[in-house]
Design goal:
Helix content is 80%, strand content 0%. It is mainly alpha-helical and 132 residues long. Helix 3 packs antiparallel against helix 4. The chain has three domains: 31 residues; 49 residues; 37 residues.
Length: 132
């Protein structure tokens, strides 16, 4: 996205937020009773409602933070299972060389090297698979 579009989106969200706040203020003031003694009760009730909403939002926020911590822990676990490419490549090559060595030993009757065991032993290492 271009910078102009991003700036326009930010400006729109800012103006939307300020408009909403102004609208809430107008509604509160227009629904307030005319009697100054009753205004205090009106604003106290509105303040109590606001505090209840804040408490509900804090509970939701805490639940979302717990979910976030679970997701982070799960991601850390899965990342912990990952192996760097160089180590994976070395393990793959070592496994191939071990298999070649065992196959060469099995191809030797009574431990005497022959053409087959030498051919197996001289097989080239596999091409790199994980690193390029």
């Amino acid at each position: 996205m271009s910078r102009r579009i991003k700036k326009a989106e930010r400006d729109a969200s800012y103006h939307q937020a300020t408009t909403k706040a102004a609208l809430l203020t107008i509604v509160m003031d227009s629904t307030a009773p005319r009697d100054p003694c009753a205004k205090a009760e009106h604003y106290k009730a509105a303040l109590a409602d606001a505090h209840r909403i804040i408490e509900i939002l804090q509970i939701r926020n805490a639940a979302l933070e717990q979910k976030l911590e679970k997701v982070k822990a799960n991601a850390d676990y899965w990342l912990g299972l990952c192996v760097p490419r160089s180590i994976a490549e070395k393990a793959r090559t070592d496994g191939f060389r071990l298999g070649v060595g065992k196959a060469a030993i099995l191809a030797e009757p009574h431990g005497i090297p022959n053409n087959l065991s030498e051919a197996i032993f001289n097989m080239p290492d596999p091409k790199e698979r994980f690193s390029k």
